[in-house]
Amino acid sequence: MRRCPLCAASTTALYHRDRRRDYYQCATCKLVFVPPAQHLSAAAEKAEYDKHQNSPHDTGYRRFLGRLFTPLLAKLPANARGLDFGSGPGPTLSVMFAEQGYPMAIYDPFYAPDASALAQMFDFITATEVVEHLSQPGQVLTQLVAQLAPGGYLGVMTKRVTSPEAFARWHYISDPTHISFFSQETFRWWAQKNTLAVEFPGPDTVILRKSLSPIAMPSEKH
Questions:
Q1: Which of 65, 66, 147, 186 has minimal CB crowding within 10 Å?
Q2: Domain 12-210 has CATH 3.40.50.150
């Protein structure tokens, strides 16, 4: 039985197949994913990331990150504290927020594996070009939302699935480290399941907001 790595449902069907990998889609949350047997080893995955040349001094990279940075910055209250999750070999988004006066922590399993960052609460968390690399996106996203203060924001950047036809010729699936592919429908499903408000500032960005107070459950009448 092939379980969805986002919602754990077992109703999945082949969505696409190319020369290297298979891609399945979950009938419940619509996530498209590569089965675990076809994932890279951790060493091979890191070797791919080591090729990245991202840096806070690269104005083009800053402009790219601006697609999430700009709409998220507009929502943040003064002194909001943030975490850049999956900061990569050249942390940049954290530098951009720090330049605007927001204290930042970073975490990356390969380049900044400081587990203490995963035991703190934050007013906002960013994950840019991260979720498509996750073998267990449901587990990771649940963990990140748990680290958000009430009313806090989770800002995600990832390219989105639109149709099987577009998927078949999509450059995004040629990266061997990309194994989880979200659509707008997937994000809406996940937001509703976790009582989050969701908006899509751009074609590859999503901002999720945690409710200010726990949802009160109706009391049982005896």
A1: 66
A2: yes
